[in-house]
What does this fold into?
Amino acid sequence: VSSPASRARSTRVPRVRPLLVVAVALAIVAVAPEPVVLGGLRLAAYATAASGATLLVSRTGAPDLAIGGMVAAGAYLGGVASALLSLPVAVGLPAGLVAGALVGAASGAMHGRLGWLLGALTSLTLGGAVVAVLGAWPPGGGAAGFHAVGLPTPFGDRADLVAIGGLLLVALLAYGRTAGHRWSAAGSVAVRAPTVAASLGRSPARDAARVGAMAGGLLGLGGVSLAAVDGSVFPAAYGLELTAALALAALLGGPSVLGPVVGTLLVWGPGVVLPLVPWVGTAPPLLVMGPVGLAVLALRRGRPLLASPTASEARRGPEPAPDVDPAPTPRSPNRQTSLGADGLATPAGRLDLRLEPGEVVALVGPNGAGKSTALARLGGQLPDGGAASIGGVRAPRGAAARARGGLARTWQRPPDVPDADVERLLLGEPEAREAARWARGLLRDDHGSAPLVWVAARGPAIALFDEPTDVPPERLAAYLRGLADAGTAVLVVDHRPEVRRAADRVITLGGEGPA
Amino acid sequence: VTATIPAALALGATYAVVGAAVAVVAVATRTLHLAVGQVLVAGVLLSLVLGSPLAGVPGPLVPGLVVLAGAVLSAALGPLVLDRLHPGLPWLLGLVVAAGTIDAVLARGLTAGTYRPAPLVTLPAVAGLAPAVVTALLLGPMLAVSLAALLHLTRWGRRVRIVGGSWTAAARGGIRPAVVRAQALALGGAAAVVAGLLAAPIAFVSTGQAAGFTVRGIAAAALLGRGGPAWALPGGLLLGLAEVAGASWWPAAGGDLAVAVLVIGVLTVRGGDHLRSWGRTW
It folds into this structure.
């Protein structure tokens, strides 16, 4: 079994060596001829912003289209406003960071609330509104020739590169720390599958907002850098083109610490590093690199150019579990309790149900009878009209509240979330790790059993399983019995004879006779 | 008020057409047509260029040519983006990159000059309303309802729904999913260009507004109901009213702000319903 230490290593993004590589590259650029220094300045500023985009798009999986708005917020409030008020850099930089973080938090919260599809719409709306409002501000309609936050030093372009490059290193360090943090894992689950996050007892909106704020802060910092390098701020510069270019850089570079730098070099490099090539040098980045970047992604089947330990772990799934001593045991719930349903609405009619601790009940019925609907109503994913009760009292409203009350569940279709991220959230306590070890040892399956391992790790008072047919029935039967013996009340939808035989009772929904 | 409200509704009617187009594509692909605004703007700019004295294209041919161009541009996103990338996040971001690329091409490559956009159809003024407003008020709702009927009442619409439900099942059932998806994308692109031609005489249409049209189109489809083209009509009208009200309050950014508040507010409050309508989560 993978030890806690090895799992911790697998989700940690290595960050020291990549930073050294970037620092050395910046040092080489700083002593290069003047045009290279100027190109390096712009690329460093873009890479700072790309680190935030990478955290959102590549690490968390959020199609957040407000990233242009986050850069704009940083550029306007950290750059223009600071320059107008003659604020020192120590104030301007945090102002840009906070401005970007506020937009990022709002956008992230909506992703957690609505999911990635409608989150894309609301983030696009938010980003457009932010840029429109900032652009309507009289000095923001178009400002040129100012020195934002004093970042362009009086010592020339090489000293500027040291300052902007230093900011880039800080951004990459912050990205590396955040990408391997529990926050990012929580944000990843919240954005990719808010329903799953809620069923784990988490608040998807809060988790996504937190990682959105972190990313927005980095993007705001990038906005300040860009404003400082360009010495100008125009609303049109923060439109969909910038958003698309940052998203492309994040997708191409991938979630490793060097990903933002590699993505930036690919997207903006041709236009910045090769100014001597007339057509490439003057064309907008996406005109050249948009089709090329999409082609690269297509050829690599969507895989980024740089892999990361986190991503490879997520693809691989949990490692198989050999038998070890001492034999792990299932986790007993903190508080044993019962689950009830009185007249729960299903397509096949009303369902009455009583499920006691230590009991395994199988729920069967024809297709369309409403077995999954019943589980969704009991789990809090669908409204139950007050029919569900936990411990004899009316169940709290919402999936997250029921999960916090000790209810856990799996889905008929395994959720599309990285296993490593969910385990990062669940396997913090030794009891959880031991229970996960017990479940893995029993189920001995790779991906299909992962949600069952998550349930076991939580030690739930009530566990609901929706057709976990990826697991062989005899192993599933032993697993369910183990959970029940530890004190969990188990309800499983499964038609296989082995599972039905292992159940204490079988309830038929939509078949002959009353449920 | 008597001039502003009909103009707002006319603008909203064009958003409804874009929303209906987005909904047709969403049913076929289970993703959002994030480049629909760029297709719309491309059609309008192309119509201005083709309709200019320099191009010399006969006026009656221009709308047909630009609608065809929008259909081809939108349909090309299937093989260029959707076939190349995985569904989900890569599709969405691929479409955004495609939209950004179209934006870049339009902004630098297609200069429309200062030609006045001609109405798509010249209808007479009614009750003091400008012909362009009357045209949008009549044709916009008709188009949105027609797209809804096409999707829900015809054999082709059934095929679109089957392809969106399961590509594999559609193929096994004798449907050519790639063709049906291309048809849905083409129809969406053509409808977007028609919406752009309706909007051009009553609103400012340029590359700067492309993302705004995308937002309003998708929002129109998703705002009130279950993500279908029929619901795009009241959603679009509501957005038009909100935008004009916001712009009258704060001309510089009130329109965008009002739309953002309406879209974000409604979707945030109704989050669960929309999650269920745009893709089952279990």
The radius of gyration of chain B is 18 Å. Residues 274-282 of chain B have pLDDT under 50 and may be disordered. The CA atoms of residues 1 and 7 of chain B lie 10 Å apart.
